[in-house]
Design brief:
The protein is α+β, with helices and mostly antiparallel strands. It has a domain of about 60 residues. About 45% of the residues lie in helices and about 15% in strands. The protein contains 16 helices and 14 strands. Strands 1, 2, 3, 4, 5, 6, 7, 8, 9, 10, 11, 12, 13 and 14 form a 14-stranded mixed beta sheet that branches. A hairpin with a 5-residue loop joins strand 7 and strand 8. The longest helix has about 50 residues. It is elongated and about 110 Å long. It comes from Pseudoduganella rivuli. Keywords: Membrane, Transmembrane, Transmembrane helix.
Length: about 550
């Protein structure tokens, strides 16, 4: 890191955007609430560091800039309504946007150390946000950091190591693998707010052994507070659970001294966010034959245009743009590529990962409902039915509110969203979850019809056998017992005895209704002999043997 950067490998400006989808879990005991998650967070007041973000579409034109206008018109109308809601009209209230954003302002910087012995690097925290969504139990942590004047190798290490929820493992010396050696969140004065604990291997091992769930690193746990990690025993009305890989989806903006000086291996490492690798080739040549076709968007990779030699790299889990630091348009935060990266491109990346995380959340719900099902327990069956129907209703709302195949007609945004969707396998995942949800709902419908059919059979059997007694006792209005003039006490006794006998016979007929139904089927079959029908009648009272 102390070595002077060579030409073409110097990063004038680095922006890294992390987007971590997490599943919101219901609270337990006193933490249970029917309020929406953002309402719970708002109700915490000063005890929470998160504050509602008042967006630029609140009617204050002084805060509304051209970059916000460009962002808005990029998307198709139905995506605009999802992202921004609808304006207040004279006929009623304004339509609300489908997401709520909260931001914390106490974290101003983050000091990171990539490897033991490396000099720490201080990154500016541009913002740290939480995104909540209507009808979807998903929350997204969004952190944007920036730095300037870095060697390319150091920028690659930051991109590779910073966005890790916990260490992947440890080497023989006990050093955490693939993540930062040390991370410190700092306030505006440079005072530490939280320090990572990735090197404390025993804590992570014990947590996985006891909880059967990974342990979130302390600095990410601090940043998410007052949200509580669900596997731990700490109380909290807002609880979350990991839903995707521990490596957070990442976006990156790099303005370099000379983009053409970057080698193919450099672009491969940036596109797949693989670290610097000390000059070694990341994959074999055969595995990388289709890198340019699968990952690169090279429409602007030419000497012409306002931002010459600009290259987009999209692998689904990452979206990286590399361009010339000497291009004013590329580095412009109001109208240029940097503005597009922080607004339009961020939103398309967010939509793609919202779709993926929501589908995974629905899949988890179905699996949990099946795991909790006990067919011998009526209450468990009822809870299972409620959970499946709720998942079916939630999936319908998700499909109609958030499932977009196209979000823009602008060629760049349309292409990047298509690349994200393809790389993440969203079409396949949506089809798979849709089939599972429909299968579950179809099972419930079939089970409901089966129960209704069984009820009809039982009622039919009771009606048939009850008809015999009804016709017999009511023939020509005949009364077997002339007790109309008897005393009230005698008539009440006769009524009670008759009621009890009739009730017992009806209940017994219901108990035997399945076998009596089988007997009626045999009795109605003209092809069967008389003795077979008598055997079927005797079989009504025969004890079944295993």
């Amino acid at each position: 890191m102390t070595q002077a950067p060579q030409s073409g490998t110097h990063v004038h400006e680095l922006r890294q955007v992390l987007l971590w989808p997490l599943r919101l879990m219901p609270g337990s005991g006193a933490d249970q609430t029917s309020r929406r998650p953002w309402e719970v967070l708002q109700a915490l007041g000063e005890t929470s560091p998160w504050r509602t973000v008042i967006d630029e579409f609140d009617g204050d034109s002084a805060k509304f800039h051209e970059r916000h206008y460009n962002e808005f018109v990029t998307f198709l109308p139905y995506v605009q309504r999802f992202l921004y809601g609808e304006a207040r009209t004279g006929r009623g209230e304004a339509g609300e946007a489908s997401m709520r954003v909260f931001r914390r302002h106490d974290v101003a910087q983050v000091r990171v150390t990539s490897r033991p012995g490396d000099e720490p690097l201080v990154l500016q925290v541009i913002h740290a946000d939480l995104y909540f969504f209507y009808d979807v139990d998903v929350v997204m942590l969004n952190v944007e950091v920036g730095a300037g004047n870095l060697p390319l190798a150091q920028a690659q290490e930051v991109l590779y190591r910073f966005g890790r929820g916990y260490p992947a493992g440890w080497d023989e010396d006990g050093q955490a693998l693939h993540c930062m050696h040390k991370v410190e969140w700092l306030d505006a004065r440079g005072n530490p707010l939280s320090v990572s604990d990735a090197q404390n291997r025993d804590l992570f091992l014990a947590h996985v052994c006891q909880k059967r769930a990974p342990r979130i690193a302390s600095h990410w746990k601090f940043l998410l507070e007052p949200l509580v990690y669900d596997p731990v025993a700490e109380p909290g009305a807002l609880r979350y659970r990991q839903i995707e890989y521990y490596r957070m989806p990442v976006m990156a903006f790099l303005s370099v001294e000379d983009p053409q000086a970057l080698t193919r291996d450099d672009f491969i490492r940036l596109g797949h966010v693989m670290g610097n690798g000390n000059g070694a080739s990341p994959y074999t040549a055969r595995q990388l034959d289709d890198f340019e076709q699968q990952v690169c968007y090279d429409r602007f990779w030419s000497p012409a245009g306002a931002a010459p030699h600009t290259r987009y790299l999209c692998s689904g889990l990452s979206l990286v743009v590399v361009g010339d630091a000497k291009s004013e348009y590329f580095c412009c935060r109001d109208r240029g590529v940097l503005a597009q990266f922080r607004h339009q491109h961020f939103l398309l990346f967010l939509i793609a990962h919202l779709q993926k995380s929501s589908l995974l959340m629905f899949s988890d719900r179905l699996a949990e409902a099946l795991n909790c099902l006990n067919v011998m327990d009526a209450n468990s069956v009822r809870r299972f039915k409620r959970r499946i129907r709720a998942s079916f209703e939630g999936f319908l709302r998700f499909t109609h509110r958030y499932w977009f195949k196209d979000i823009s007609e602008q060629a760049l945004v349309r292409a990047l969203f298509g690349m994200c969707s393809t790389q993440l396998g969203l079409e396949r995942l949506h089809a798979e979850v849709k089939v599972r949800v429909e299968d579950m709902n179809g099972y419930l419908e079939a089970d409901s019809l089966r129960r209704q059919a069984n009820t009809v059979v039982r009622l039919t059997v009771v009606t048939i056998f009850g008809l015999i007694g009804t016709v017999t006792t009511g023939f020509l209005g005949m009364n077997l017992l002339a007790e109309a003039d008897a005393s009230m006490e005698r008539r009440l006794v006769i009524f009670a005895v008759t009621f009890i006998v009739t009730t017992v016979l009806t209940a017994y007929t219901m108990i035997k209704s399945k076998r009596l139904s089988d007997f009626l089927d045999v009795l109605s079959d003209e092809r069967l002999p008389f003795w077979t029908k008598m055997k079927a009648l005797v079989g009504v009272w025969r004890t079944e043997k295993d």
